[in-house]
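User: structure tokens for this one?
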Amino acid sequence: MIGSEIYDSYYHMVKRISSEYAFKFKMVDRQDISQELWLWFASHPNKITEWTNLDSQKDSDKLFAKSLRNAALDYCIKEKAAKEGYSHLDNFWYTKDFIKLLIPAVLSSDWSKLNNALSNSVKSNKSLAESGDWMAFAADIKSAFDQLTEQEQNLVFLFYGQEVDGQELHSTAGEDKPTARATMMQANRALNKMVKHLGGNMPFNDEDIKEQVTGDSNDLHTVS
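Assistant:
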């Protein structure tokens, strides 16, 4: 059951997020997405209790919005797969780690860098430069890189492509930032933009928060 207080408080958020994902996934009905989001509330009573008791309403709303968007995305990609006749497990997601692995080769066209990095994990009779799958990945990543601003491209090229350290990155391309850490964070945000261009992050496993007893009955540990 969803209490009237929660329903009234988050009605507009649910409506807004449902509309957002119905626009992105036109084959999925907005009302079905809304129902899925209300089901999220019904199945996460512990998170509701914890997040509504936060001191900051802004922080609380951010947490709810993130989980509701995750639930909407998870539902929509499964509905899209069902309607179009394929398994949602066949979807490929570009992670930051995967992009960072390929960027040195993609931005230099030197596939030996990737062949060396994957020599112990990739079993293939042909080089990565001859592999259709890897070349498709490279094309996608280059396309995402091209969407960045010139400054963002410079940061990504140096920090992830040339693999310079934070201090060198800051001295070379971080004139407008006060510290090396701030410059590295700016490079990380640029990489996040590439992930978003490539489809965004895979939905996370959004389980409710549970209290788990370990050892002494008074020793409670919160896990998710």
